[in-house]
Amino acid sequence: xxxxxxxxxxxxxxxxxxxxxxxxxxxxxxxxxxxxxxxxxxxxxxxxxxxxxxxxxxxxxxxxxxxxxxx
Length: 71
Prior knowledge:
The chain has five helices and no strands.
């Protein structure tokens, strides 16, 4: 649904290409989360993965910066 919002939103008044770039960290974050989730043998809470994995924290920060600068 995020991608549909990015490409079919007619009411967004900010920079559309910066908003479109925010799709890259979303895909990378989802792929990284799935990789970490399926490659570990122990069962943790999902939020523990997000807070302990530096790559995911960085991706969330990049995504937030792109959203902030798109306005």
